[in-house]
TrEMBL record:
Name this polypeptide is given: Sec-independent protein translocase protein TatC
Entry's family note: Belongs to the TatC family.
Keyword terms: Cell membrane, Membrane, Protein transport, Translocation, Transmembrane, Transmembrane helix, Transport
Any single biological process term in GO: protein transport by the Tat complex
Entry-linked NCBIfam families: tatC (TIGR00945)
Lineage, top ranks: Bacteria, Bacillati, Actinomycetota, Actinomycetes, Kitasatosporales
Listed Pfam families: TatC
GO molecular function: proton motive force dependent protein transmembrane transporter activity
Subcellular localization, as worded in the UniProt entry: Cell membrane; Membrane
Keyword Transmembrane helix: yes
Membrane topology: Multi-pass membrane protein
Length: 298
């Protein structure tokens, strides 16, 4: 395609993706209260001041947080933010397909296979990380709210709570993609399984440090809840890479397959002594006759 046609196709693909996001956002705007309740309910069940005073006093969790919305425009901004976030998430099959449809014609068959594998395994891994974050966050919030000094009330803005939940889900989801990225690098020949295995001490320390920074709670159990699954996924990725390296080495030892071309030997060889060329004629010329004034060479 000429460049103008590529730009025109990109514009059409982007327009379709944006249109899908806008339509889903409009529909989600009518249900934004239900969406907010779904996102925040697990956390509010742990830290929200919606219980009676007798229930709070009889439990060990004495501290609670009052959910607040401050400002005249805050409810509208909150509804817009939640609706747009829902639109981007629920419309992801449409805009991801548009992105794939734009990129796919330029990929080879092997590259398409790797891309299908990345999407097929990457999406469930991201959902697994987000699900883990969604269930770890209430415990984290409980630990954080218990640090409130006695006699003080904790006011928690609702938009801050939504930002925290969203950030935790995205961070956990992306962290679960790291082992898949290592496997893809191994399949493409960039990274070997032996080198990945040699990094295991540094990776364990690095994953632990990442989990400590990614989780807002100082609770070590929350940090381990994120670090332990990534440790397991990393060693699974190393095992897959080692198996793939062994399979690649066995294939190289067996030589090319029946449908594969063997490597050409391009080493120059000596051609021996060259016979002298007689008076202006090539060796294969047997006559000096010219056709239309030209000899064999011209």
């Amino acid at each position: 395609m000429p460049l103008a046609d590529h730009l025109r196709e990109l514009r059409n693909r982007l327009a379709k993706g944006v249109l899908a996001i806008v339509l889903v956002t409009i529909v989600a705007a009518f249900f934004y209260r239900d969406i907010i309740n779904f996102i925040t309910e697990p956390v509010l069940d742990q830290i929200g001041c919606h219980q009676s005073f007798g229930e709070l006093a009889s439990s060990k969790n004495v501290h609670c947080a009052h959910i607040t919305v401050s400002g005249l425009l805050a409810p509208f901004t909150l509804a817009l933010k939640v609706s747009l976030m829902t639109g981007v998430v629920l419309a992801s099959p449409v805009w991801l397909y548009q992105l794939w449809a734009f990129v796919a014609p330029g990929l080879h068959r092997t590259e398409k296979k790797y891309a299908y594998a990345f999407v097929g395994f990457g999406f469930p891994l991201f959902l697994g990380g987000g699900y883990l974050a969604f269930h770890v966050l209430p415990t984290t919030a409980r630990v954080m709210i218990d640090l409130t000094p006695s006699g003080a009330e904790n006011l928690l803005p609702l938009d801050d709570l939504l930002d925290l939940v969203t950030r935790m889900v995205v961070v956990f989801g992306l962290a679960f993609e790291m082992p898949l990225l290592l496997v893809m690098l191994n399949l493409t020949g960039v990274l070997s399984g032996g080198r990945m295995l040699g990094w295991w001490r540094g990776m364990v320390v690095g994953i632990t440090a990442f989990a400590a920074v990614a989780t807002p709670s100082p609770d070590p159990m929350t940090m381990l809840a994120l670090a332990a699954p990534i440790w397991g996924l990393y060693f699974i990725a190393v095992a897959i890479a080692l198996i793939n390296d062994r399979r690649r080495a066995r294939r190289a030892a067996d030589g090319p397959g029946d449908d594969e071309a063997s490597e050409l030997d391009l080493t120059p060889e000596a051609i021996g002594e060259v016979e002298p060329v007689s008076a202006g004629r090539l060796p294969e010329q047997t006559t000096t006759d010219r056709v239309n004034g030209y000899d064999d060479v011209t």
